[in-house]
Specification:
The complex is a heterodimer of chains A (409) and B (77). Chain A has 409 residues and is of the alpha/beta class. Helix content of chain A is 43%, strand content 22%. In chain A, the strands form 3 sheets. Chain A has a 5-stranded mixed β-barrel with strand order 1-2-3-5-4. A 5-stranded parallel sheet of chain A has the order 7-6-8-9-10. The longest helix of chain A has 44 residues. Chain B has 77 residues and is α+β, with helices and mostly antiparallel strands. Helix content of chain B is 51%, strand content 16%. Chain B contains 2 helices and 2 strands. The radius of gyration of chain B is 20 Å and the shape is elongated. The chains are: A alpha/beta (409), B alpha+beta (77).
């Protein structure tokens, strides 16, 4: 029998919660050992709040302790920034935080004792896989531009999954998503992640696989630092995108993956094109088709018009018109030349008339010469021998005629 | 002409690209030019329609009792 029935022990007097918590607190605070103690462990879940106080968990392989490092203590000890995974020796005193009934180590000083066990393991595995060439840039495969099927390895419960599906739905709803559910933290997680990756490869439809987990402490993300996961990523037949934790978290899975996204959301974004760009590209082609066919038709129309014009030029009517026009032109030229010739002739005539006039007998007589004629036959006398004494003569001068008779001397 | 309604988006988009390339050939005769143009425009419309109507399908991988691998629709709502 699991719970043998025993006589109930007599309990001490009834306590309120506050009373017992206060009692425990007093026990802790009066224990000399616990009031000035140095504890070795590794820092985890380190969080500095706005007040400047720092909260972290000190842990080793078997147990853990809550620690409070108040602002004033941090300032006094001038400690460097605490980070998860650091191996430290913490000095301080224990007490109980009554409100939460929580046992806490109130830290006075932190000394750094080494890189921490997890960090050491991380570095060792990283060095080994790197030496094997698993992180080589040449191993990185290009991601498909527009994968029809996207594999996702993550927890079905994770907010990260919802975030990723939201991104995929918005950016690229054409895709099909195949999820291989897996644990993403705890001791079972590494094997589960590796199996999920292998299953997606076996299923064979996914063109790209996203391995993702939302943010968490270094321990929560630790599965992604295990060798089995790294190996499963390395042997995947399709490219793997890792999206683990936050921007600042780097895991071994990130180094092996074909593409390291800083978060699950970033991984989903990287995996698919944006539907807006696709629409723009399609629209662009539509425009181009339109302008190409327009150019084409324009070229055809121009050719047609050119042919029409040529035909028009060769038609009988236009030939007739052309001849008519030619004729009109010729006639016009002819008339012009005729006019020109006439004018020229008139000029010449005028010149000749003037010279003629200068030579006329009237002009000569006016200058004082006279013409002598025989009155009987009007013949002009040019020599003395032509005249006998007593001949009647007529002498023509400028303004008339003088009658005269030849004498014998 | 509507033979492409079974095409995937990628296939349709690739054909659209081909139609544009074909139409860039200036030596094409009018008949072929118009054919490429009409087909291209239909493909573009088809691509738009696909994008408009697309809805992300989400499935989950599962191993059956017989040890076979199958995928089934997953509703996370």
């Amino acid at each position: 029998m699991l719970f043998p029935e025993l006589e109930p022990e007599p309990f001490s007097a009834d306590w309120s919660v506050a009373q017992v918590v206060r009692h425990l607190k007093e026990l802790l605070e009066t224990d000399i050992e616990l009031q000035g103690i140095r504890v070795h462990g590794e820092i985890s879940g380190c969080k500095t709040v706005s007040s400047g106080h720092c909260y972290f968990t000190l842990k080793d392989a078997e147990a853990q302790l809550s620690c409070v490092f108040f602002k004033w203590a941090r300032q006094r000890s001038a400690a460097q920034e605490l980070r998860d995974g650091m191996a430290v020796a913490v000095s301080g005193r224990f007490s109980l935080y009554e409100r939460d009934g929580k046992l806490q180590l109130y830290v006075d000083r932190v000394e750094f004792t080494g890189a921490g066990e997890l960090a050491t393991r991380f570095e060792q595995l990283k060095t080994r896989l790197q030496a094997e060439g698993l992180f080589e840039a040449e191993r990185k495969r290009p991601l498909p531009q527009a994968p029809a099927v996207i594999g996702i390895v993550t927890s079905l419960q994770a907010a990260a999954l919802r975030d990723m599906l939201r991104v995929l739905r918005t950016r690229y709803p054409l895709a099909q998503v195949v999820i291989a559910p897996s644990l993403v933290q705890g001791s079972e997680a590494p094997a589960a992640l590796a199996t999920a990756l292998d299953l997606l490869n076996e299923h064979g439809e996914a063109e790209v696989i996203i391995v993702a987990r939302g943010g968490g402490s270094i321990e929560e993300l630790w599965a992604f630092n295990e060798e089995v996961v790294a190996r499963a990523i390395a042997r995947s037949r399709v490219p793997v995108i890792s999206g683990v934790g936050h921007e600042t978290d780097f895991t071994i899975a990130d180094f092996v993956a074909d593409y390291r996204a800083s978060t699950p959301t970033a991984a989903a974004t990287k995996a698919v094109p944006d539907i807006v760009d696709l629409q723009a590209a399609t629209f662009g082609y539509q425009q181009e088709l339109g302008s190409l066919i327009e150019d084409f038709l324009l070229r055809y129309r121009e050719n047609l018009e050119r042919a029409e014009r040529q035909l028009e030029r060769e038609s009988p009517r236009s030939r007739l018109e052309r001849l008519q026009q030619q004729l009109d032109g010729t006639i016009e030229t002819l008339q012009e030349q005729m006019q020109h010739w006439l004018a020229l002739q008139q000029e010449r005539l005028k010149g000749v008339t003037l010279s003629l006039d200068a030579l006329s007998p009237e002009r000569i007589i006016e200058r004082g010469y006279s013409i002598v004629r025989r009155a009987s036959d009007r013949s002009i006398i040019t020599h003395v021998a032509q005249v006998q004494p007593g001949d009647e003569l007529a002498i023509q001068v400028a303004d008339g005629q003088i009658s005269a008779r030849a004498t014998a001397d | 002409m509507d033979a492409f309604t079974t095409l995937s988006y990628e296939e349709a988009f690739e054909k659209l690209e081909q139609a544009v390339t074909a139409l860039q050939d200036k030596r094409l005769d009018l008949d072929h030019a118009l054919k490429h143009y009409e087909e291209g425009m239909k493909l573009a419309q088809y691509c738009h329609d696909l994008l408009q109507k697309a809805e992300l399908r989400v499935q989950q991988l599962r191993i059956t009792d017989d040890g076979d691998l199958e995928s089934e629709p997953l509703d996370l709502a």
